[in-house]
Amino acid sequence: MTRSCHHRRLTLSDADEAVGECKTRRRQAGTTSTVNVLGGHHHHAYLRPAPHPAHRQARRPPYRHRGPGRPRGHRVRVDGHGGGARPGCGTGEDGRRRHRCGGRARRQHPQALRPRRRRHRQPQRQHLGPLMPVRDEEAVTSDVAAPVTSDVTAPVTSDVTAPVASDVTVLRADIDLVDAEIRALVARRGELSRAIQRARIAGGGRRTDLARETRVITPYTQSFGRPGTAIALALLEICRGTKPTG
Ligand SMILES: O=C(O)C(=O)C[C@]1(C(=O)O)C=C[C@@H](O)C=C1
């Protein structure tokens, strides 16, 4: 059956007629319809089954119409979330409606390149109080000792063994001595290694001995793991060159 409202002819079945009338006509009649008329204007109304009342509440947040008078298609939520017309929405100079809230109209908008607002806020860093001050020994990046400061505001920690800056200076001096000894030992080792290589070559043998190298590497690996293996390989390279064979 075909019914007409003051704007458009709506073709409805007899069964739908009672609930599918034009939105304006329903309002005028003061009746309650179970038909959803969507689109903001009944020119574009269509029919679909009414949601369960409980779902209706969840699906439809509280809206109020922006501005006085009859709504023009843009609604804002009274709870302040979402919705609402952007600047530029409305009727243009050519009389055509401009909707710049999203979709195609958004892409046509000069500000369309601006990324949409994130739907979910990024988790913010919890306020954990002021950052811990960097300890003096961590701040020192050169061999020049940092000036000793007494930060009375530094929090007292349970790390009672943490050395003070003056201790660090002394300990680093010791490390420098150890490193020098290591370098001297490596140099000494190289001399011994090259002597062996020369003797082996002089005796008609090969310069290197891979089985021996394995036995050299193993204790380093056992002591220090993968870095120990790397140390041994570095030592061998220093002592016999980059070629493990020859
Ligand atoms: O022990 C040897 O036979 C060496 O020649 C010394 C050494 C080493 O530097 O440890 C060097 C080369 C060999 O391939 C194996 C080990």
Explain this structure.
By secondary structure, the chain is mainly alpha-helical. Helix content is 39%, strand content 7%. Helix 6 crosses helix 8 and helix 7 packs antiparallel against helix 8. The chain is flat. It starts with a strand and ends in a 6-residue tail after the last helix. The N terminus is likely disordered. Bound molecules: prephenic acid. Prephenic acid (PRE) binds next to helix 6, helix 7 and helix 8. It comes from Kitasatospora albolonga. One of its GO terms (molecular function) is chorismate mutase activity.
Helix percentage range: 25-40%
Poorly predicted regions are 1-49, 55-59, 122-150
Strand tally: 6
How is the biggest beta sheet arranged? Answer: 2 strands, antiparallel
Rounded radius of gyration (Å) = 41 Å
| Physical arrangement of strands within the biggest beta sheet | 1-2
Strand content: 5-15%
Instruction: Assign an overall shape.
Output: flat
**What is the distance, rounded to the nearest whole angstrom, between the alpha carbons of the first and last residues?**
100 Å
Derived from helix and strand composition plus strand pairing, the structural class reads mainly alpha
